[in-house]
Task: structure prediction
Amino acid sequence: MKKEIYIGDKRISKDSPTFIIAELSCNHRNDYDIAIKTIDEMHKAGADCVKLQTSKPESITIDSRKDDFIIKGGTLWDEKSLFELYGETYTPWEWHKDLKEYVESKGMVFFSSPFDNPAVDFLEDLDVPAYKIASFEITDIPLIEYTASKQKPIIISTGIATKEDITEAVNACKRVGNDQLILLKCTSAYPTPLDEVNLSLIPKIAEDFDCLTGLSDHTEGNLIPIGAVTLGARVIEKHFILDRSLGGPDASFSMEPKEFAKMVDQVRGVEKAIGVSDYVLSEKVIKNKNYARSLYVVEDVKKGEVITERNVRSIRPGLGMHPKYYSDILGKIFNSDIEKGTPMKNDLIE
Result:
């Protein structure tokens, strides 16, 4: 798989800045003005990308109240039918073009998650630069193949996936010749408890599937995205909402503008702190080495005196001989009168 991928003008690689996606999802509450205001706040908060979901309820499920189609299990959406839920999460398709233009006018990238082939075709007509496969679609191999066949970067969330599921999805991309793949560690629990996050899987996914990795996060707060970046995540996706009081299916695990901005700032700070994996010292640190220990003459001595543990010691600062030579010089003779506080050098020895 490619280790350098461009989505729009944003480069994603092992050494690039983290690509930060703000997920709009249904947090517009079916109000176009709220969608625009949310995009404004995403931009102010430092998002690189705005992502939508391009679906219709009938493209994901059928309108049925049979038991199979009723949500259960202690979720945020228990007792709703799947069709009802996806009706709430729908973003009008007629908004997409204008939202894309508005997002791009702000210098951000726009793309979406398609949920069937007509959605892919629709997004192709809009010339989106990438696609996202949602966690619950990772087993829809025909959809993945069709999406990947467009030969654009494809980001896949792994929220419900076994290793076998991920392998099948990766192979689907390979079959159509698409090697621009990013896999996102994800846990499909809303919000996600910390003990179910399993960040340690991020580097393992990168190794097992030889690809770039990231995190699609549904925890509350910004702790987990920061941790993910330290483990090699090159993409962070978080749901974004103007104000959680707006409500809606995704409100409880979506970030408000100030929270998102803080996360972005902390991610950028952590990137600086991660730095590079070598032993090269910065100029500032090199200067501070002057305050390390070295060998100094610590009392006045006369020519011909023997170098002893009393008249030469390892002390700060670090402008004399390296302490590793201490045992080598003990017992040797000073070649001149020397004042206390003189850095020890070879040229002081007979």
Q: What stands out?
A: The mean pLDDT is 95. DSSP finds twelve helices and 13 strands in the chain. Residues 283-348 form a domain with the Type Iii Antifreeze Protein Isoform Hplc 12 fold (CATH 3.90.1210.10). Residues 295 and 346 are 11 Å apart (CA to CA).
